[in-house]
Structures are given as structure tokens and as C-alpha cells.
Amino acid sequence: MIVRHTPGAYLTFLLLLFTNIRTASADEALRERLQDANGVQTDVWVYNDIPAAMAEARRTNRPLFVTFRCVPCRDCAAFDADVANGSEKIRQFARDRFVSVRQVEMKGVDLNQFQFDYDLNWAAMFLNADGTVYARYGTQSAAGSDAFNSIEGLLATMEKVLQLHKAYPANQQQLQQKRGAPQPTASALQLPGLRNPEKYARETTRSNCIHCHNIHDAQHLHALQQDRWQPSMMWKYPLPDLIGMKIDRKNGTRIVEIIPDSPAAKAGLQAGEEILSMNNQTITSIADMQWVLHPLDGTTAEVEVEGNRSGRRTLQLGKGWRQHDFSWRGSMWNAPPRLQVWLPELSPDQARTLGLPSGDGALEVRWINMEGPGGRQAKADGLQEKDIIIAADGKPIRMDSKQFNAWLKLNRAVGQRLPITVLRNGERRELSLLLVE
């Protein structure tokens, strides 16, 4: 039998073929520019094209699984490799049960739809094609990039998402607050506090990719410009540990320990039980818990937690409950005040060689950024490369470089001075650095 095609149908076929070839070529070019060794499973992942994936999710009635990966960042690299190119179980789920996306830049991402902790080096969101958010996955802390993420935990969340998708839309009420409030701008390139937007608007390479943390950077700068900046803005996405619940990283919702005398302990939650909901939002992961805790006030707040044994319990959160070590956050470096000096810590052996007391440390001035106002001011105030900082504000250095910079954000403001003690060629010198940015 001879099948005859109309000219119009043939033209449509050629157009689709050309579009697919062009898209594949563009994807390959982006992978090469970013040196994205893990973005190769093209039969599993839609590469950097969320709108195309949402269209496919609508067509197939499958949930979306969108991973956000900052390719140049080393943190979470091993976990990213396991998810994108390693675990056979993840591969099977991502290919057969979800429409899965590997998003490697934030330029075209709708910030109204995709709200999460932008300091993460790897994050995932699960949603319905209509935009309803089912879940978030991905957590980091000062304990390390792999302290909370695991293939087992991700699979557990994926299983829970499939259950939510099967029950949708009857469960829509428990998912309403998971999307987040509308943002001032939906485009990262249009964020009012984004530094050098003209650079980021160019073709994406490793040197001008909008990292997730650049969004927090822009938010911080805009708050500073509007005189709204507060150091407490750094205490983002609190861990459930801060309200007394340590969660099993391989399960994502099971309490493994209740911290004594904590809000969770006082409310009567129990180790071993599963968290079902918090503030009426269905919970599938530690990241879901952080999403609920993130908007709560840091001085006094309460959160309702539903456990499968204890039922609904109200936790009373006291002053300072959000405070934690944020020194791991990429957005910390651009938060004010910025010293603009590279200060790697000395090893304990090097500190002992300098004759410092046991337990005291030191930071070496390895590089001063003369292109930034902060670096130029530090140089003008007498700081020199190879100086060894042994005290700040009259107290010995007992922090690593990241912790020192976090301490600076919490204890100083732009316009204030930072007294430091340095060793220069073995001689102690007292300096006072004016913080200008």
C-alpha cells in the first residue's frame, strides 16, 4: 500500500525534525560550554528546558521532577553524579514515572513557580503540570553538602510524590501553600539587586552562569539599597534540628532523635514517628520542613506538627530559635559587610609554629581584592598580603575562614571599624579596618 502525505503534513514533519535537531544541537553546545559531564542521559532528562517538560507532563499526566544543579560548584558533585548518571533506580523512576528536567542555569527559570533555598548547589522540586508544588528535596548545612542528601532519601520523596500525584486534585488543599507568594520579579535577570546583569545576559558559559545563590545575592543587595538589610536575613530555611527534631536522611520524614528540652520535646513528639504535615502542609522531606519554617518569625512563633503517633502538636518557638551557622552559604560572601580579602586559615601545626596558645588559630591574608572598595579600603588601612590575623575585636581567632566571615556579618555593619591584630614578619601590629561595603 502506498501512503500519500499532503504537502502540509510533510512541511510540518520537516519543521518538527528541524526543531528537534536544533534543540539537540543547542543542548549539546550548552553542555560543552558548561563542561557538564553528568548531563548526558538524554533518554531520561529534558535538558535545561522546563517549558518543554511541562508541556510533556500535561500530555502524559505525569508529575514533573526538576533538578537544579550549579555545574561549576564542587559541593554536591558526587550526589549530582549519582542522581543524573549513576543510580539505576533513580534513572528508572525519572524516565518512567516522571517528566524529568536537568536545569543548569537560572536565567530562564520562573522565580514565582520555583521558590527554594537558592544557596543549594543541588536542589529538586516536584510539581503538577498545572503548577501545583508537590515537594522539595535538597538540604545543606555547615555539616557538609552530603550531610542530609541521599539516594535513599530522594527515592523516598519520589515515592511520596507519586502518591500525592495519584490522589490529586482531591488533596489540593494540603498543597496550596507549597508554591509560595508572588515575587517582585519572575526573572533572575531582572532582579533589581543583580550585579553586572549585562554580563549574565550573554550566552551562558561557566563564567557568566547565574548560580542559584546569585538570586540571594541580589535580594541582599536590594535590601541594603533600600535600607532593609538585617543580618538575620542570613538565617534562611532553618533545619528541623532547630526546633528539636533530628530527621533520618534516608527516610526524610522519620524522627530519629528528639533533642531534650526543645520545642519538639516539650510538645510531646516522639523519636521513631513519621512527620505527616506541618502547618497543614503535607511533608515529604527535610526540605519540605524547611519550607514551612522559613517564613516564621525569629523572635516568637509557633508551628503545628502532625506525627503519625502523637497526632497534631503545637510547638512554641522562642527568641533566637532560627540562629544557626550559615557559613556554608554561597550568598554569605556578598552579604554586607564585605571585607574583600581572601583569608584561608592556618593549620594547627602552623599556628603552633607561630607560638599561639593551644586552641587559638590564625588567618593568612593571601589576597586583597583591589578591584573592590572593601579591598582597597583594607589596603589603605594598612593591611598587607602575607599578614597573619591572630585576633579580631580583641579576641583570639578560633574560627575557620568561613566562620570568620559569618561572624563579621553578625557583629559589624557597613561604616563601622574592625580592630584586628596581625603578625607581620613576626611582629605584632594593631590595625583598624573601615568597612565600606
Write a compact overview of the structure shown:
By secondary structure, the chain is α+β, with helices and mostly antiparallel strands. The protein has helices at residues 7-34, 50-60, 77-85, 88-96, 151-167, 197-200, 212-225, 263-267, 286-293, 348-353, 373-380, 401-411, and strands at 45-47, 64-69, 99-103, 122-127, 133-137, 245-247, 255-258, 275-278, 281-282, 301-307, 311-317, 341-342, 363-364, 367-368, 388-392, 395-396, 417-424, 427-434. It has 3 domains: 23-177, Glutaredoxin; 240-317, Roll (Pdz3 Domain), CATH 2.30.42.10; 337-434, PDZ domain (Pdz3 Domain, Roll).
Word description of this protein:
The protein has 437 residues and is α+β, with helices and mostly antiparallel strands. It has 3 domains: 155 residues, Glutaredoxin (3-Layer(aba) Sandwich); 78 residues, Roll (Pdz3 Domain); 98 residues, Roll (Pdz3 Domain), CATH 2.30.42.10. 30% of the residues lie in helices and 19% in strands. It contains 12 helices and 18 strands. It has a 5-stranded mixed beta sheet with strand order 1-3-2-4-5, sandwiched between helices. Strands 13, 15, 16, 17 and 18 form a 5-stranded antiparallel beta sheet that branches. A hairpin with a 7-residue loop joins strand 6 and strand 7.
